[in-house]
Structures are given as structure tokens and as C-alpha cells.
Design a protein that fits this description.
This protein has 191 residues and is of the alpha/beta class. It has one domain: Zincin-like. The protein has six helices and six strands; from the N terminus they run E-H-E-H-E-E-E-E-H-H-H-H. The protein has a four-stranded mixed β-sheet with strand order 1-2-6-5. Strands 3-4 form a two-stranded antiparallel ribbon. The relative contact order is 0.13.
């Protein structure tokens, strides 16, 4: 039985066929989150940036006191507002576009890639609803992301523990490379 049966996982793509594992992986990740952190979260929408209408493509969001175009984001958290429930939006095309298809066939990698974004956005929800802190909101979301990832992988990938010393740098290196490439790309666009 799912931990969080009330959270809908919706898919809304335009001219994009996501890998078949995306929905399953997001379902596993949501089910791995303690229910107390998901209170008030209505849905997770899986989409792509081409699915955004003209006005949404032009929208900006603020991250670390900088304006960032929505089409450059991998995910967004929408807090409860004017009677609309809190939701998370994941841009699957942005999450997986730089990864070789062969690597994306490994369930561990699938969960890592999606957990990186989903749990960060869920961290914003936890910060807003359960555990408010007076720090930079991106730092708080990153802290929650790490806690939730650690919790999920301890529960679902127990076999990793003996290999942790070997696997940690192997798994962390590709994620660091992707983040470095993304930062450089954003820096070039700003200049």
C-alpha cells in the first residue's frame, strides 16, 4: 500500500514521449516519503517545457535572489494559493536530456535523477508547511532533499550499504558534472 495515496501523479506532455520508467519511478519516490511531509500536497505533474504556453514560457522564478526563466528549470513548487492546492511540476525533458540512454536503463540512476529534483521541490513544500526556517529557501530545500534522498535509499536500496564507499564517488561524480554543466550554461546565458 502506498504511503501517500492522495497525491496524484499527472502526465501532460506535448510532442514528447517520456521513457516508460518515469511514472513508476516518481510513484516509488512519492511512496517513499513519510506521510507527514506530504500533507497538503495535491499532485505531481510530469511535463516537458514544450508543453508550456507562451505566457508560462516567459515567466520567471526567483532562486537565490536571481530571476530564472521557467523553461530553464527542472522542477517547480507551487504553494497553496487562492484556493488552489500545492503542486509540484517536474520537467522530465530537462531532467533526463543530458544522460545517455544506456545509463537511464538502470533503476538506481532513474531514481537518483528524479529524486534529485522531486525531493528538492518537496523540500520547498516541507519548508512552507511543516518546518519553516529563517534561511535562504534554496538552502533549506537542498537540506530536505538530502534528508529525503537518504531516507528513500536506506529503505529501498539496502543492498547498497556495503558498497557505499565505492559507489558514492561513482554516483556523485555524474551528478556533479551535470550540475556544473547546467551552471555554466546558465552563466553563459546571463552574460
Amino acid at each position: 500500500m502506498a504511503n501517500n495515496p492522495k497525491i496524484e501523479i499527472c502526465e501532460s506532455y506535448k510532442d514528447f514521449l517520456p521513457p516508460s520508467w518515469v511514472h513508476r519511478s516518481v510513484t516509488r519516490l512519492i511512496d517513499g516519503v513519510p506521510e507527514k511531509y506530504c500533507g497538503g500536497l495535491h499532485s505531481v505533474t510530469l511535463t516537458n517545457t514544450d508543453g508550456l504556453n507562451h505566457s508560462r514560457r516567459r515567466q520567471k522564478t526567483i532562486s537565490r535572489k536571481r530571476k530564472i526563466s521557467v523553461i530553464e528549470c527542472r522542477g517547480l513548487y507551487h504553494q497553496k494559493w487562492q484556493g488552489k492546492p500545492a503542486t509540484i511540476e517536474l520537467f522530465v525533458d530537462k531532467i533526463i536530456h543530458r544522460w545517455p540512454v544506456i545509463v537511464l536503463k538502470v533503476p538506481l540512476v532513474q531514481d537518483l535523477l528524479l529524486a534529485d529534483v522531486l525531493y528538492h521541490e518537496l523540500g520547498h513544500h516541507v519548508h512552507k508547511t511543516c518546518a519553516p526556517e529563517h534561511r535562504e529557501r534554496e538552502d533549506v530545500a537542498e537540506d530536505w532533499q538530502k534528508k529525503l534522498v537518504r531516507h528513500y535509499f536506506r529503505q529501498n536500496y539496502k543492498w547498497i550499504k556495503p558498497f557505499k564507499i565505492i559507489l558514492k564517488p561513482i554516483v556523485a561524480l555524474p551528478l556533479k558534472i551535470v550540475r556544473l554543466i547546467q551552471r555554466k550554461a546558465k552563466h553563459k546565458e546571463m552574460n
